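Same chain as my last thread, 150 residues:
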Amino acid sequence: MARRGAQSTTFFWSTANRLYCASAYSSTHRSLGLRCLASAKPVSRTPELSRIDEVDFGPQSGYTLLVAADRETIRTVTCGDTAVAFREVRVTGDPDAQRTVYALELEGWTAGVLKVRVSRADGVHTSTLPLAWSDGKVPPNSDWHSCGAS
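reply #2:
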């Protein structure tokens, strides 16, 4: 399970042929959609954060960002000055080539860049993770949230 909202739950899984899939279920709307994303790329040789996909199945399930953390562990995530809730949903690979998939829970459509603190073999580091939308692409007077510079 990637996210449990007030009225729905978002599920995430990987298939035998290395596709990442997500679906949401609501007791009032039943299935809100099923998405299978591009094949997972191999685990990076160096520590790396990468977006898998941003999943928005409607207001009942919220907006979830799926992130792969190769050879590192997410400690905190912020959007501007606001903490972003996250949960570990899957660990794959070997101890020396490990990928952890996280689900980040965003309030709604969000643009900009997240700040992420991660632990690696050599200590704690701060990274940035650009979202699919930059602030410059968001229409004026929209209800999008902004994490700042992108």
